[in-house]
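Your task
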Amino acid sequence: MIEAVVDTLRPLLGDRVSTAAAVREHHGRDEGWHPPAPPDAVVFAESTEDVVAVVRACSSSGVPVIPFGVGTSLEGNIAAIRGGLTIDLSRMTSVLEVNVDDLDCRVQAGVTRAALNRVVARDGLFFPIDPGADATLGGMAATRASGTNAVRYGTMKDNVLGLTAVLADGAVVRTGTRAKKSSAGYDLTRLLVGSEGTLGVITEVALRLYGLPEVIGGAVCSFATLDGAVRTVIEAIQLGIPVARLELLDEVQVDACNRYSGIDLPVTPLLLVEFHGSPAAVDDQAAAFAGLAAGHGGDGWRWSTDAAERERLWTARHEAYYAAKAMRPNALAIPTDVCVPISRLAQCILETRADIDASGLTAPIVGHVGDGNFHVLVLFDPTDAEEVASAHRLNERVIVRAQALGGTCTGEHGIGCGKLEFMAGEHDPTALAMMASIKRALDPGGIMNPGKVIPHVEG
C-alpha cells in the first residue's frame, strides 16, 4: 500500500517524498525513552495543499498518517507504531500575519516558538508559551503544550484562537475567529488542540500575543528542605502574588545543572522565580515573595533585572532534561509530568521523593510548580531488567498518586502511546467512549496517528 501512495505523490512533490532509511529512522524517534518506530515513508510538506494531497492519497489506500514537527515530544507521540507515512511540517515556516493592535498572529505549523518571537519582538510583542525545547507551534498546539510561563499566561489551549487542519478524508477545516471570545457552536479549536494528530493534521495556527513587559525581574532562592520550597509556592499562589514563572529544582537536579550548564548554585532545593510588569509592581511582587520564602527557610535570595543573568539561569533550567541524562550517560530517562491541584502539591512531591529514595534510583525532580505541574526524570539502565522494572514501578506510582489527588497523568507532554494505560484511571468509561466516538466519526478508517491518545480505537 505504501508503494502505491509513494508512486502517487512523487510526481506531485518530487524529492520531498523520501523512503531513505536515515530519513525514516530520524522521523520515528523523539526525545523520550520509547523504542523508535520509523515510518515507511516521509513527505516534507510546504503548504496546506501539500498536506491535503498526502492525506487523500493515504486515505484511499488506508495508510496511516503521522504528523511531525521537530521531534521534541517525549511520549512516543510521533512514533509510526503501525507503519505508514510521516508528514514533516518543519518547512512550513511562514509567519502569515501579525496584528499588532489586536495582539494576535497567524503562522504556519512549522514556525518555532523562538522564530515567532524574533519576528514579533520588532513590534514590542511576544508569545509566552515556553516548553523549553524550540518546538514548532503546530506541534505545541497538537500536544496542548505548556511550560515555564504557564502560571501567568496559561497553556496552548488558552492561547490558540483558531486552526487550519486537514482531516482524514483530505477536507480542510478552519476553526475559530480573531475575536477574543465566541459562543457560536462547538469549540472545534479546543477539540483539535491536544489531539496529537489523531483527528487531523494542523497546518496553521492563530495565536494570542502579549506586550513585552516593561521590566522583567528574576530571583533564585535556595531552601533547607524540599518541603519549604514547595510550601512557599503554595502560599504564593494562594495569596495571588502574580508570578510569571515559578520553577522548582530539587538538590539532585541542581547538582546536575551545575555540572552540565556550568553554573554554580547551592546544591539544595531551590526556586527560580520571575515577575513581569512595571518597576514598582515587580519590586513589590518580589518583596512579597521573598518574605514568604524566608518564612519557610528560604535563604540566599538573589534578585536581578539583568537580562544576561536571567538568560543564563533559564538556559540551565531548559537543559535540565539533558543535564539529568548526563548524570548516567548510558541510561534512559522517563520524564513523567504529572499535575495536581496546588493544595495537594506538597503531599504529592514529598511522597514522590520518598518513593524515589526507596527505589534506589536516580530521579531528579523539576517542575513548573506554580500551576501544580512537576517532572520526575527517572534514570535507568535499559540493559538491567531489575532497573527497568523498578523505573516503571516508580513512574506508575507517581502517576497513580497524582490521579488519586485529583490530578492528571500528564500536564503537558501528552498521551502519545506512552501513557495510554493511564487514561482509564483519569476518565470514566462514558468519557472514554465519547472520545472514541469522536475519533471514529472524524477518522472512520483509523489512519490518523493510530494507537495514540485513545485506548483501543480501531478504524
